[in-house]
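Researcher: Sequence recovery benchmark, item below. Answer with residues only.
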C-alpha cells in the first residue's frame, strides 16, 4: 500500500511516448538513471515507483521537445534534465541538504553541518572520526548528486587494501570481484539513492569507476569526485599520491577512522599526516568527527565512547 502511494504516473500521447522512450524503450535506462528510480511502461503511460518533484515536469518537457524534434537522443534528454533540476538546485543552494536521485539527506550533527558546507566550498575534504558518524555515507551521496546533476562526469571510488596482510592477487575472481568485499560500504551508501541495476549501468558507461589505490599512480583525474575511503590504512606516500591526482574541475574526499588503522604504526597513517600538514591551505577543509557525532544508533555511540576511553587509558 505504501509503495502505491509513492508511485507517480505520466501519460504520453502515442507519438510522445514513442519519441521520448525511443525504439524498444531504449531511452528508459537513461531516464531511470537521471531520475534515480525504476520506471515501468504500460501502453503510453510511464510509472515512476517513487514520486519526486522532477518527474511530471521532466516528462512533460521531454514530450514537448520530442513532438517538435522527433526521437530524442541522450544529449537532448540530459539538456532537459538540467533545465528541470536546476531550479530545485538553486532553491537548495542556501540550505544544508544534499539531494540526489530524488532523495534528500540532512546533517544530523554540528560536524556533519561543517562537512556539508565543506563539500560545497572546498576542493579537498579531509574527514576523520569514529564509526557511525556518516563520513562515507555523506561523501558518496554528495558525489552521486554531482554526477547525476551533470556537475561532474565521474565518481571515482578507491581505498587501500591491507587487511589481514592479504593482497588482491591472492583473492579469487577478476579485479572487480576482488575489490567488492572491500568496497561494500560504498555500494551500500549508493544503494540508498539508486538501485544496484543503475549502479551497474553507471559503471558500464564510466560514470562510476572503482580502482585500487595503487592503480591511481600516474593518473590525472579531471571532472570527477574522487573518494579515498578507509584512509587510515593509506600511508603518507599513498595519500599524497592520491591527492596529487586532482585534475581540472575535480574534488577529492579523504575519509577514515584513525582508531581502526591496520598499519603497523598509527603514526604512519597518511590521513592523520594530511590533516596535520594541509589544514591551513585555502581550498582544503579538515573535518574531525567525535563519538558525539555518531548518528548510526545510540548503542554504536556508546560503544565508540567506551572504546575511546579504554584506548586513552592504554596509551
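Model:
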Amino acid at each position: 500500500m505504501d509503495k502505491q502511494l509513492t508511485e507517480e504516473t505520466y501519460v504520453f500521447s502515442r507519438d510522445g511516448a514513442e519519441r521520448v522512450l525511443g525504439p524498444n524503450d531504449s531511452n528508459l535506462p537513461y531516464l531511470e538513471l537521471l531520475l534515480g528510480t525504476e520506471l515501468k511502461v504500460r501502453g503510453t503511460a510511464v510509472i515512476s515507483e517513487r514520486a519526486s518533484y522532477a518527474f511530471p515536469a521532466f516528462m512533460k518537457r521531454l514530450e514537448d521537445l520530442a513532438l517538435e524534434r522527433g526521437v530524442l537522443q541522450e544529449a537532448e534528454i540530459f539538456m532537459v534534465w538540467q533545465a528541470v533540476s536546476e531550479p530545485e538546485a538553486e532553491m537548495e543552494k542556501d540550505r544544508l541538504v544534499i539531494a540526489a536521485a530524488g532523495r534528500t539527506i540532512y546533517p544530523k550533527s554540528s560536524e556533519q553541518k561543517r562537512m556539508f558546507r565543506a563539500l560545497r566550498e572546498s576542493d579537498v575534504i579531509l574527514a576523520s572520526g569514529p564509526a557511525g558518524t556518516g563520513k562515507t555515507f555523506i561523501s558518496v551521496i554528495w558525489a552521486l548528486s554531482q554526477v547525476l546533476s551533470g556537475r561532474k562526469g565521474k565518481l571515482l571510488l578507491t581505498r587501500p587494501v591491507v587487511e589481514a596482510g592479504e593482497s588482491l592477487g591472492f583473492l579469487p575472481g577478476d579485479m572487480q570481484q576482488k575489490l567488492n568485499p572491500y568496497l561494500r560500504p560504498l555500494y551500500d551508501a549508493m544503494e540508498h539513492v539508486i538501485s544496484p541495476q543503475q549502479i551497474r549501468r553507471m559503471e558500464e558507461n564510466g560514470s562510476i569507476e572503482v580502482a585500487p589505490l595503487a592503480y591511481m599512480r600516474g593518473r590525472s583525474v579531471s571532472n570527477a569526485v574522487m573518494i579515498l575511503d578507509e584512509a587510515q590504512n593509506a600511508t603518507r606516500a599513498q595519500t599524497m599520491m592520491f591527492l596529487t591526482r586532482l585534475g581540472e574541475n575535480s574534488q577529492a574526499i579523504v575519509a577514515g577512522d584513525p582508531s581502526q588503522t591496520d598499519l603497523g604504526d598509527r603514526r604512519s597513517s597518511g590521513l592523520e599526516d594530511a590533516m596535520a600538514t594541509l589544514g591551513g591551505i585555502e581550498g582544503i577543509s579538515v573535518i574531525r568527527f567525535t563519538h558525539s557525532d555518531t548518528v548510526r544508533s545510540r548503542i554504536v555511540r556508546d560503544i565508540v565512547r567506551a572504546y575511546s576511553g579504554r584506548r586513552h587509558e592504554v596509551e
